[in-house]
Amino acid sequence: MPQTNIKHDPFAALRIKEFMFFLNTRFFLTLAIMMQSVIVSWQIYDITHDKLALGLICLAEAIPFILVSLFSGHLADVISRKLIILISMAFLLLSTSALLYFSLESSTVLKNYGTLPIYFVFGFIGIVRGFIAAAFPAFMAQIVPRELYANSATWNSSVWHVGAVIGPAIAGIICTIDFQTAYTLNLCFSFLAIFSFFFIASKPVPVKTKKETILQSLSGGIKFVFSNQLILGALSLDLFAVLFGGAVAMLPAFAEDILHVGSTELGFLRAAPALGAIVTAIILAYKPITKNAGRNLFLNVALFGVATVLFAVSTNYYLSLFFLFLTGAFDNVSVVIRHTILQLSTPDDMRGRVSAVNSIFIGSSNEIGGFESGVAANAMGLVRSVIFGGVMTILIVAGTYKVAPKLRKLDLKNIQ
Description:
Helix content: over 70%
Low-confidence stretches: 1-6
Shape: globular
Largest sheet: none
CATH superfamily: MFS general substrate transporter like domains
Number of helices: 16
Mean pLDDT: 83
Radius of gyration: 20 Å
Order of helices and strands: HHHHHHHHHHHHHHHH
Number of strands: 0
Distance between the termini: 19 Å
């Protein structure tokens, strides 16, 4: 594993060649996934004009994601993580190909079965992403030395958010042409992600410190997380904030019904939170949060809730962009702190399983939160449902602040 003695260098992790290829893969994979999300959500809403249908996309992905996560975490600790990622990206490529086929003018799939085939494909994508979510963070920890975990987490988050800015923006523009062109470009980015990943050498499978049955291994990650107040507190805080505070799944409805704009503007709305996160990431690269990390975590999640409420009440497109920008800026502080806690606190032979538990808490909460948003929007109205979510986020911050004193007093330098 490469070593470095450079201190206080914001570009330290970027000096590791394999980490740069890892970031390239991360970038193109994020482009592909974020583009796909915008294309499908706009396509579904264009066909159905139903807010609940937007939520059901998220649910279709979340359920399979959760079901495979523990098993994918177990695999990521016993077989090659690189192999898992390569196979998963290949299946993601196959899924996008199916979506492209459904959208061809010559295809009768959507004409005969409506949006149901899209939901089935997204269910399969949920399985694929479950394996990626377990193996990707665990593999990254094998590329960079321990002293650069915080720095690598910042750059990893930065690259993800750059992709999350560019992907939706491109998708929104390309969707004005047609869905076939959008999915074709989506496939190109998936190919580039796979190509870049081949330049990273395989890493050894972590040595097991004790013999376990499969059942013991599957439960090991859960037990580890629930026995660690720092990890559990950080995951729980993000879980409920994302579950209630996310407005992203409803953006096609906001774009069309509240802001009265089209797919191009939708792409920029989807990109705005990621742009805010990039700005935060640049700041954190130069001024990393170590001391008072817990206090900053709570403060920024609360501000995320406030920005969500302000977005909900806005009827001006540019103000809405700004408030979404703020949600991403505040949210990325918690993302970087949480990833750093996970990397520093987790033994190498458990990284796959703990990453899987993290993905259940955070990754699936985005999709389940999207479903909750769709149900709430149908029940209490679009604007009121997002206001409710933002207020719930603030209340959750207050509750977690009281019950997690170790997280409240967190100093990242003190994690052994």
